Amino acid sequence: MAAALTAAQAGLIGCEHCGLLVRAASADEPGHCPRCGSALESRRRQSIERTWALVIAAAICYIPANLLPVLGTTTLGSTEYDTIMGGVVFLYTSGSWPLALIVLIASVMVPLGKLIALGYLLISVQRRSSSSNRERTRLYRMVEFIGRWSMLDVFVDTFTVALVQLSPLMAVRPGAGVMFFAAVVVLTMIAATTFDPRLIWDAGGEQES
Amino acid sequence: MQTLACPDCDLLQSVPDLPPGGKASCGRCGHVLATGTADPISRPLALTIAALLLLIIANFDPLMGLSAVGRHASTTIIGGAYQMWIEGEQATAVIVGFCAVVAPAGYILFMLMVLLGAGRTPVPGWVGEMLRWAERMRPWSMVEVMMLGILVALIKIAALAKVEPGFGMFAVGVLMLLIPAIEVSFDPHAIWQRVAWVKPKTSPPIAGDSAPEASS
Ligand SMILES: [Zn+2]
Questions:
Q1: What is A156-204 written as a DSSP string?
Q2: Strands A165-166 and A21-23, how do they pair?
Q3: Domains of chain A, start order
Q4: CB A71 within 8 A of CB A84
Q5: Rounded-to-integer distance, Cα A140 and Cα A117, Å
Q6: How far is the C-alpha of B212 from the C-alpha of B192, rounded, in Å?
Q7: pLDDT level of residue B138 (50, 70, 90 thresholds)
Q8: Dihedral angle of Cα A181, A68, A94, A152, to the nearest 10 degrees
Q9: Where are the domains of chain B?
Q10: pLDDT band at B137 (very low <50, low <70, confident <90, very high)
Q11: Which ranges does the record mark as transmembrane (chain A) (predicted)?
Q12: Which residue is closest to B29 within chain A, CA to CA?
């Protein structure tokens, strides 16, 4: 074979669940995989629209996630509120700068980086860009891989709240920021699964192979 | 030898039968298409059973305790999610409970069923369904993220009170290593090739991959 062929060009579909290569009955209704029974899709349905919707929703949640407090500490009647950045500063000033750096990267930079990366992938696919396909695929894999780590601060807040209940001396309560933060993580994780990396290659991938 | 479509870029390519430890990557985008495993069932099964035991310990033993001015408090994983719930953060509690308890337990239990079922010939169709569920749970199982979260919480709280790590935390630490070990030793492709087809000999016609009658 001279030119490399994609499954779609050959009228075939690779089942996303079991990997079986199936000849599509028709382009509009490819039917079900005969081996594992899951619905066949040549490309994930409405991939771009759905991913955009999730990215925009996550970007909106990212603002209150950073501005609203994630923890409120009550000591002897007075309450102090901490945002995510406040938590980073606390870790830094209490002498554990490696942890401050980890929380800063996982909670502030990773979610922002994921939103920018997904936005860039979506725009480049919509413009039918055919350059640096390999790099863009790698970027997509990184977004998929790193997504879970931005849940870090939600766990930190949860276990801090669960432990520090020494009333009447001290109590820690969660702030509304936690919920928005968890929403950002969940929305970007779903966005990574609705985005179809095969779209990156659909615009003239043959030039690269 | 079989023909596959790369899941990341859709390129059709032939993948040779791989020796144990061998790896075939997509020539265009670099996605790992297949890995060769010497023993697709018993090693992952042993690791999964170990993970199941640790999962039980991790969920029922306290992760850590805290004492200050004669008072003592301790918490488990579920206790953390429960505290979030009673503090009025129900949505967060559900997400934490799902990522820290339900998804890891789901992944381990579905994998256990897959590996136990895969020993039969022919492999029953429900094994495929369980495998799909295990794969669905995997991205949401965040044991390693939770472990780091617990450590950060411990250091933050250490400024306020005396903190003692509990037995559950060590279980979480080992579980954090076992889950990726299951993944690495497991080859979903080897299972799929043995699974009984949903529609044995009907249309649409099949291309490429070995059909059951040609799988010997
Ligand atoms: Zn590829």
A1: HHHHHHHH-EETTTEEEEE-HHHHHHHHHHHHHHHHHHHS-THHHHHTT
A2: unpaired
A3: 1-42 (no CATH), 47-208 (1.20.140)
A4: no
A5: 8
A6: 11
A7: very high
A8: 0
A9: 1-38, 39-194
A10: very high
A11: 52-77, 97-124, 145-164, 176-195
A12: A134
Interface contact flag, B8 A149, Cβ < 8 Å:
no
The per-residue pLDDT for range B31-77, each reduced to its tens digit, is 888 887 777 788 999 999 999 999 999 999 998 888 877 778 888 99
Token pair, residue A66, equals: 């950073």
Dihedral angle sign, alpha carbons of residues B120, B14, A19, A7? negative
For position B41, what pLDDT does the model report?
87
Residues of chain A found within 8 Å of residue B161, distances taken between Cβ atoms = 164, 166
Residue type, A139: L
Please tell me which residue of chain B has the smallest CA distance to A20. B209
CB contact, 8 Å: A23 with chain B? yes
State the distance from the centre of ligand 1 to the C-alpha of B7, rounded, in angstroms.
7
Task: Please tell me the distance from the alpha carbon of residue B93 to that of residue A179, in angstroms, as a whole number.
Answer: 9
The model's pTM? 0.88
Nearest alpha carbon to residue B12 among A130, A192, A11: A11
- Bridge partners for B163 per DSSP: B66
Q: Do B148 and A153 touch (CB under 8 A)?
A: no
Residue B1 banded pLDDT, cuts 50, 70, 90:
confident
